[in-house]
Write a structure and sequence with these properties.
The structure holds 2 protein chains of 2 kinds. Chain A folds into 2 domains: 213 residues, P-loop containing nucleotide triphosphate hydrolases (Rossmann fold); 86 residues, no CATH class. Chain A is 29% helix and 23% strand. The N terminus of chain A is likely disordered. Among the domains of chain B are: 70 residues, no CATH class; 91 residues, no CATH class. In chain B, 34% of the residues lie in helices and 24% in strands. Chain B is built from 12 helices and 12 strands. In chain B, the strands form 2 sheets. Chain B has an 8-stranded mixed sheet with strand order 6-7-8-3-9-10-12-11, sandwiched between helices. A 4-stranded antiparallel sheet of chain B has the order 2-1-4-5. Classes of the chains: A alpha/beta, B alpha/beta. Chains A and B meet through helix 5, helix 6, helix 7 and helix 9 of A and helix 7, helix 8, helix 9, helix 10 and helix 11 of B.
Chain lengths: 340, 336
Amino acid sequence: MNAFTNQPLAASAIPAVTNPLLEVADLRKTFSVGRGLFGRPRAILKAVSGVSLKVYPGEIVGLVGESGSGKTTLGRCVLRLVEPSAGTVRFDGVDLMALTGHQLRAFRKHMQIIFQDPFDSINERMSIGELVGEALAIHRLAKGKARRDRIVELLEQVGLRAEFADRYPHTLSGGQRQRVGIARALAGGPQFLVADEPVSALDLSVQAQILNLLLDIRDRLNVGMLFISHDLSVVRFIADRVLVMYLGKIVESAPAEVLYRSAAHPYTQALLSAAPIVGEGRSRERIRLQGELPSPVDPPSGCVFRTRCPKATSECAAVEPPMRAIGPDHHAACLYPASA
Amino acid sequence: MTDRHDAVLRVEELQTQFLTAQGPVHAVNGVSFEIGAGETLGLLGESGSGKSTIGLSLLRLLPPGRSRIAGGRILFGGDDLVQASEERLRRLRGKDIAMIFQESLSALNPVYTVGEQIAEVIRQHERLDRRAAFRRAGEILEMVGMPDPGRRLSEYPHELSGGMRQRVVIAAALACQPKLLICDEPTTALDVTVQAQILDLISDIQRRTGMAVLFITHDLGVVAEIAHRAVVLYAGRVVEEADTPSLLAQPRMPYTQGLMRSLPQFAEGRRLAAIPGFVPNPRSMPSGCAFHPRCGEARPDCAETVPALAEAENGRRVRCLRWREIAHQTERRVRT
């Protein structure tokens, strides 16, 4: 076996003419950290600093970044699970920011989230059937016999036999739990899913099953997906397009194969060179990043990556680089991008 | 197993049990391996494989009363650590054998400075005064690539980032120049860029000191990066062992082959060849080969006979009834 012998992936799922399902413009999220004696915040933490992105129906957009990049906050903000500080989120033409709490709750069936640990906040005493039924009840969908049928249908959709409905969470393996988490997310018949590190806690052999399942669901239900992960090889496999996030900003965006073949942003290049890859072993030269991730309370002026960037000049401290086109559908926020 | 005379550590038929109300559970079921000076052995396994239990067994750090080493030998220097006295173990731990874990924060004491903690380890094993131990701590921090080591000595663990904390833990582990370093998923909680730095650091130090490293991980990529040789564990048993390049290029045991096919980078087409099912519960192990219910190559006798660990070419070991056939198939596939 050779690394990366896979054929060019099936034609990208991005339709050329359809409208985006999700359109995020200049989204910002700040948190107040540390309160002084009179309740005034001591500092402002910039978790997401002006992010714009689109997800088309049936498209899987990968969002990669390290801890502290703001990827999880961004994922919650686009669903308004965390209230954005500024910016717009349009979902299928609807301005999410304009919805009242009540309207938003009703709208949630169209957009759901899959967590790393799906059972983090559930009642362990409910059976699997009850847990999936609860998700249906929240959206006031299907009652009585119809609900029971729908529960079985949802379980089967995620590869669990009907008898799982009578089992309890503690009897399930990690992979089975994640399947239940996905069944709950699918209960309202969503068009869009945020998957936040959905396979990070799973064993490799089980991770592959869940990745296949997510692809099946995308193909069958044509849902759009924002797939958040720190694992570059997982994102390369599952995503049609990839966004790279660093310190609250998107620094590069490209179709998956393009990004991995010809990354233009120095941060993306460093990230790719750091990831251990079977089949390349110790032969590769790494790009070593200097220093540590700066504090999001006090991000660097100009380019957020400049303090660790091997290419940085004085200009990088003065100017915030805009996203510029590198190639077709390929953008990078860098004054000195590598040419494709 | 290659019979080397320079083995720093030799584990023979290790059996570790967890004692439960329902009776003993065999977490480690007859595991043997050895590590030479200057060598890194990867111990690769998924959850329930017994990999962490092996690491803890080596230093007899498992909770007494809830677990026990039921058999086997752990040969280190002139000692069998299974039989060694608690006093003898205390002298070995932290001096000749050091161990680092995934949770660097819990390995450090929050109320002592970085310098105090490293100096403390040194003074436990060597007759140095406080000041000399502190000076040595500074030198070690510099060796592990800590930026501004002099200042870090007087800082507390919470003032450091995850990557820097793991450097402090490594510094404390290396303080007495151990002959064997046991690493249990030390980079799993770290970002890839930091992980790369820590892996480089461990390799660099090994080149300088010639210590043996046992590197416990679930990550094939990390094994590829750091291990000279690797042992694959499944359900408490060694199922395959080989030097890392041959193991990854030509896995022989169907489980290892399945792991390789599960890697997203080896996807053929738009789906991954996942291993069906999940790892067995140690309370109810399948009969015969523990992997047979998930194995695409399984035959009826796989459910009856526990396969022996067969010796194949170049020191490779494989636990599979059909390993010769499978080796032939793999070869044919490679040639065509």
